[in-house]
Specification:
Elements (H helix, E strand, L loop, with lengths): L15 H9 L4 E12 L2 E10 L15 E7 L13 H8 L4 E5 L10 H17 L1 H4 L1 E11 L1 H11 L18 E7 L8 H4 L7 H8 L3 H10 L2 H4 L6 E7 L8 H13 L3 E6 L13 H19 L13
Parallel strand pairs: 3-4, 3-5, 5-6, 6-7, 7-8
Antiparallel strand pairs: 1-2, 2-4
Helix pairs in contact: 2-11
């Protein structure tokens, strides 16, 4: 039996296993569950906010003098399924380092909603947290994001798109925030460049028509609007992409194009290529948690710290 009311979007609903995982967050962080960041008709669109238990270093000084940085976890699932419940280890990792984490639920690209809806909801979740930053002692100028697959795409959208181009709840429109970096694993970086598809089945015209709920020229225009490759700018936040070279679901070619574009315009984009790894690092590789810890979490922590003092380590928070 589900542990959340039916009025909550599907990506927030919890059965017994997810409920147990969700409750485990409270062991290492100050858990604020099922916060409604906006309402769409009968639906509550919600998020979880995990505030850090540790806010001071061993000398009693604040780890972050302007409030806790915030890491947004944007889940994958092809934009049509999945849930916002990240690992308990990730929540603990950030909490121990003075960083807040947010698990975001968003509406799926079906039943009249589109991939653009997914992006808009994610931006509204970010806007909600920014608008309530003072309440929770958060730093709205030190936001980060991470996710895999479709969640990697949404992560890149947060880092490359202009929030004003995805207006959502009007009560959140005046929220101000700044992303400083993010990590995306096996992300689709473009919906319009055929060389990035590489014959794989994740992105094709028929799938785009379903995800975007349109066809022809309007579809291609919207697809470009939703392609981080075409939104990347020289001053975009720092981006780390991790991609398996044997990914048969989302080809690594799109990530390679992203790096080439970054080199052309002077943007800060790095790509970690994993030989022999498939989608979501399945294959002959270390357990996903080890990859997550060494690449995702450690790099997000480093980004949060190195953004201190205009990208120098001189004033970086010390544990």
């Amino acid at each position: 039996m589900a542990c959340i009311q039916a009025a909550v979007v599907p990506s927030a609903q919890r059965g017994p296993a997810l409920q147990k995982l969700h409750e485990s967050y409270a062991k290492s962080a100050d858990l604020h569950s099922d916060i409604v960041y906006k309402k769409i008709g009968e639906w509550d669109v919600t998020l979880d906010l995990m505030l850090p238990r540790r806010t001071k270093n061993k000398y009693g000084e604040p780890l972050f003098k302007d409030g806790a940085p915030v890491v947004f976890y944007l889940h994958g699932g092809g934009w049509i399924n999945g849930n916002r419940y990240t690992s308990a280890q990730a929540v603990e990792f950030f909490s121990e380092r003075g960083i807040a984490s947010v698990g975001v639920s968003y509406r799926f690209s079906k039943d009249g909603d589109t991939l653009e809806t997914c992006v808009t909801d994610c931006f509204d979740a970010v806007r909600f947290i920014a608008k309530n930053a003072e309440k929770y002692n958060l730093d709205p100028n030190r936001f980060l994001a991470y996710g895999a697959s479709a969640g990697g795409h949404l992560t890149l959208m947060m880092l490359t798109a202009e929030a004003k181009d995805f207006p959502g709840d009007p009560t959140l429109a005046d929220a101000a925030f700044k992303f400083i970096g993010g990590v995306a694993m096996c992300p689709p970086t473009t919906l319009v460049d055929a060389e990035a598809w590489n014959g794989e089945d994740y992105i094709n015209v028929g799938r785009l028509e379903k995800l975007l709920n349109c066809s022809g020229e309007p579809m291609w225009a919207l697809a470009k609007k939703l392609s981080p490759l075409h939104l990347l700018k020289k001053d975009s936040p720092r981006i780390l992409i991790v991609h398996g070279e044997d990914d048969k679901t989302v080809s690594i070619e799109g990530s390679i194009l992203m790096v080439k574009k970054a080199e052309q315009i002077g943007a800060d984009v790095q790509l970690v290529r994993a030989p022999g790894a498939g989608h979501n690092f399945k294959g002959k590789h270390p357990p996903l948690w080890r990859v997550q810890r060494l690449i995702f979490l450690e790099n997000l922590w480093e980004m949060a710290r190195s953004s201190y003092g205009q990208n120098t380590w001189e004033n970086a928070p010390q544990l």
